[in-house]
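Weekly sync, protein design subgroup
Attendees: M.S., D.O., the rotation student, P.L. (late)

Item 1: inverse folding check
M.S. brought a backbone from last month's batch and wanted to see whether the design step gives back something sensible before we order anything. D.O. pointed out we never logged the input encoding, so this time it goes straight into the notes. Structure tokens as presented (868 positions):
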């Protein structure tokens, strides 16, 4: 190619870069932006970085964007208006909410300044799966239209001022798991399906939570409300005005764990719960139950820990001779109990019988169960963690790790806490540990948590704890950190110990977000204007040159048909230098149309994140698909332990090349099993560089950029600081290693693979006690030699702090040593094993371990189209 052609090619490439930049400069569809503007125009206290007209490209706090439907050559980026809890937003929710048609999650919790009614147009958000408005100031009736959101699985409207009745239409929410309407001013009866064709709550067979306490519900609890097909775990109708008896149908729900019906006007006999072996907590206090004897289930149910029946009219004898070992508390104060059997050798439980006839007998007042419990306040506070608290400024607070910071604060509230000794520190330590586990597993840099001020709320009877969450790395959380923590707690992603559920969280406003440096906004805008002007000028010049080049290229297309169309690596294994890319073929559009049978849908195997636009890259066809397909069994390929080691080594060497030999270095930013491709011989190839970043010298080891990637693989430091480093790839690669040994996705059924490994791992036991989570496939024939070292290396890669993780070059050396331990040479051109694999469908048994090249040319797919 002569010099003139090289210049033209360079200019055309520059033109393409500018074209792509101009196309993506505003990533938000105009309709979405208009809808968002209409929705929030009356809001005050909006987040500081909601500036400009491009929520998606501008990284607005609480806004998430994803590729939506494709219409010819137009790509729409739809706003997913999700995590906006605890931002002190003020205003109303207008009918413009319906314009954000792609919403799957709407969380505005803990914004007490959001008031007014919920517009009926919310029912037009047909893709909504989670709606959380906890602790706001909304009032008026709950719209009937919410019943049309049939994909909802989570509905939390608690702690507002909603009035009116519970809509019958909620019975249409057949997928809902969590239904929380508590702490409002809702009145009327509990709706069930009727002969007029109206649905009701009895149709919610998938619901596990009915939380409707602290309202003004009246009438009886309908017999039809419960049935044996339900999956209910928590039924909370406390602090209402319900009357009549408890329906017998309640006892047919075998999954029930918590029944909380206290502070109503219920009467008659206590229900028969003898077959409800899952029950752990029952509170029927402050009603009018009048049994002549205490039923046997009170003491004998195997899982029952807490029974509260005080302030009723229960009489007769209490038999404790066959009590369950799980039982901790029986509260029968203010009833008509006359006998206790046995009188001596009482079980080691907390028994409360004060203000019963049995305690009015001579000398009975000396018995411990006849004494009123002393309601001393509890003074628990999380102690320092083996450190001396340092003096902090008036605004800062010292964390348990003795670091001064601005914590995110709120109330952690249990609606049915099943322990009575509020001064027992072990309960609080368990809550603290589960909180930290959740934050770590969700990749949130949290230094520590502190619990304090345990107390009972005098109005609701709920048990409350003050929670403080302290940031790591800096002295304060950014908006993303607070939003994420609040979202985890408001949407019940955090799972506390059994004795603390069901729970809710009420977050306080956070006033310590880091601000933007003065002048940065204006300078940024100036840069955009200058850049736009330059881009227009360059565009005009390059458009002319591109036209010239297109004519020349078309004339040359036919002459190049016999040339090698593949990208080639120029390698010199003897010199030890890094390979260089010699060049890649430019395909004519007509050629691509021919090779793909006019872009036939039958030849489509997938599409990239940007969908089908004008820009096209031609890749080598990789016949064995992705590593994820092989681990899941989709591809039909059996991967033994040796093959997994070699896949790990191949991917590691590819990343090491990107980090240390490429100039400038490249950070992949989206390492995951679906981006590792396997060729004819199951060689690993790192693919999909759509999110990659170049690391130039001026950036001193990191790139400050908007967080992108795949949940489950994201580096926690990058997630919180937006500072991308090579160690971010190392973290993702560590998760990939755990996939290789477990064949589990990073987040599967709410469980995070890193946490699961930590939970079961015990280095003192065989195979580190990992048998329960290992992929059985790798245990088929022989013990996987070197697995322990492999797992330990993976756990080093997923360390919370980047500085504690190895480099990819170090990872390569350690995997090479593991392969040598197995008895193979990682640098040899061949390896053998007795294992085989079958291709799905064909049944042909092949031997995948022929001569293999571990050089860099085997890591990246070359450019090729297979003719049809």
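Designed sequence read out in the meeting:
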């Amino acid at each position: 190619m002569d010099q003139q052609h090289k210049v033209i090619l360079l200019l055309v490439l520059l033109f393409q870069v500018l074209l792509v930049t101009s196309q993506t400069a505003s990533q938000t569809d105009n309709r979405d932006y208009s809808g968002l503007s209409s929705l929030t125009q009356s809001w005050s206290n909006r987040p500081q970085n909601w500036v400009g007209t491009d929520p998606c490209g501008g990284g607005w706090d609480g806004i998430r964007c994803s590729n939506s439907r494709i219409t010819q050559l137009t790509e729409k980026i739809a706003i997913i208006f999700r995590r906006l809890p605890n931002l002190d937003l003020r205003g109303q929710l207008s009918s413009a909410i319906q314009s954000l048609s792609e919403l799957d999650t709407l969380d505005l919790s803990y914004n007490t300044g959001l008031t007014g009614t919920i517009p009926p147009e919310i029912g037009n958000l047909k893709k909504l799966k989670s709606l959380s408005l906890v602790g706001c100031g909304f009032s008026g009736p709950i719209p009937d239209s919410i019943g049309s959101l049939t994909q909802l699985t989570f509905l939390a409207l608690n702690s507002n001022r909603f009035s009116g009745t519970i809509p019958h239409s909620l019975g249409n929410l057949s997928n809902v798991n969590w239904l929380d309407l508590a702490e409002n001013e809702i009145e009327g009866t509990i709706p069930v399906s009727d002969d007029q064709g109206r649905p009701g709550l009895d149709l919610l067979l998938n619901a596990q939570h009915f939380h409707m306490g602290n309202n003004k519900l009246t009438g009886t609890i309908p017999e039809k409300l419960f049935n044996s097909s339900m999956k209910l775990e928590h039924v909370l109708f406390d602090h209402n005005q319900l009357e009549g008896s408890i329906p017998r149908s309640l006892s047919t729900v075998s999954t029930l764990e918590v029944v909380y019906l206290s502070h109503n006007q219920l009467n008659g006999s206590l229900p028969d719960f003898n077959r409800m072996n899952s029950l752990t907590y029952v509170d029927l206090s402050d009603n009018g139950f009048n049994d002549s004897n205490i039923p046997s289930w009170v003491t004998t149910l195997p899982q029952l820990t807490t029974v509260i029946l005080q302030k009723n009219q229960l009489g007769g004898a209490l038999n404790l001779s066959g009590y369950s070992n799980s039982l901790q508390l029986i509260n029968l104060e203010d009833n008509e109990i006359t006998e206790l059997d046995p009188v001596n050798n009482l079980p080691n439980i907390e028994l409360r019988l004060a203000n019963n006839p049995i305690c009015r007998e001579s000398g009975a007042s000396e018995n411990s169960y006849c004494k009123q419990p002393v309601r001393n306040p509890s003074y628990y506070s999380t102690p320092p963690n083996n450190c001396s608290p340092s003096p902090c400024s008036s605004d800062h607070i010292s964390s348990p790790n003795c670091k001064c910071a601005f914590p995110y604060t709120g109330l952690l509230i249990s609606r049915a806490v099943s322990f009575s000794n509020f001064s027992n520190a072990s309960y609080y330590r368990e809550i603290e540990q589960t909180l930290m586990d959740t934050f770590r597993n969700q990749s949130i840099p949290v230094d520590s948590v502190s619990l304090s001020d345990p107390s009972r709320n005098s109005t609701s009877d709920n048990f409350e704890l003050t929670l403080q969450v302290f940031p790591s790395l800096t002295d304060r959380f950014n908006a993303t950190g607070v939003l994420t923590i609040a979202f985890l707690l408001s949407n019940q992603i955090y799972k506390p110990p059994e004795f603390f559920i069901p729970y809710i969280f009420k977050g306080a406003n956070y006033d310590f977000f880091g601000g933007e440096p003065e002048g940065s906004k204006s300078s940024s805008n100036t840069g955009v204007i200058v850049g736009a002007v330059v881009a227009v000028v360059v565009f005009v010049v390059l458009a002319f040159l591109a036209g010239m080049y297109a004519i020349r290229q078309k004339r040359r297309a036919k002459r190049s048909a016999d040339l090698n169309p593949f990208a080639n690596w120029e390698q010199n294994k003897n010199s030890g230098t890094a390979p260089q890319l010699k060049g890649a073929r430019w395909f004519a559009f007509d050629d691509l149309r021919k090779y793909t049978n006019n872009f036939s849908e039958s030849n489509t195997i997938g599409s990239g994140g940007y969908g089908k636009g004008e820009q096209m890259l031609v890749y080598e066809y990789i016949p064995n698909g992705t590593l994820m397909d092989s681990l899941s069994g989709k591809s039909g390929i059996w991967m033994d332990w040796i093959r997994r080691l070699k896949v790990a080594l191949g991917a590691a060497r590819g990343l090491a090349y990107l980090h240390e030999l490429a100039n400038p270095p490249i950070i992949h930013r989206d390492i995951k099993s679906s981006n590792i491709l396997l060729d004819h011989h199951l060689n690993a190839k790192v693919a999909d560089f759509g999110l990659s970043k170049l690391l130039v010298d001026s950036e001193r080891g990191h790139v400050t950029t908007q967080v992108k990637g795949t949940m489950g693989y994201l580096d926690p430091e990058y997630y919180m600081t937006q500072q991308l480093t090579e160690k971010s790839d190392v973290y993702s690669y560590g998760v990939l290693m755990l996939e290789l040994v477990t064949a589990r996705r990073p987040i599967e059924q709410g469980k995070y693979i890193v946490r699961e490994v930590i939970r079961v791992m015990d280095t003192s036991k065989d195979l580190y006690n990992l048998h329960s989570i290992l992929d059985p496939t790798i245990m088929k024939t022989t013990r996987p030699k070197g697995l322990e070292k492999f797992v330990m290396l993976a756990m080093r890669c997923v360390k919370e702090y980047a500085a504690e993780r190895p480099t990819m070059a170090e990872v390569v050396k350690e995997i090479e040593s593991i392969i040598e331990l197995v008895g193979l040479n990682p640098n040899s051109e061949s390896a053998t094993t007795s294992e085989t694999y079958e291709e799905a469908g064909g049944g042909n048994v092949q031997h995948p371990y022929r001569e293999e090249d571990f050089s860099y040319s085997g890591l990246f797919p070359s450019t090729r189209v297979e003719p049809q």
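Discussion: The first helix runs from residue 3 to 24. Residues 239 and 573 are 78 Å apart (CA to CA).
Action: P.L. to compare against the previous round before Friday.
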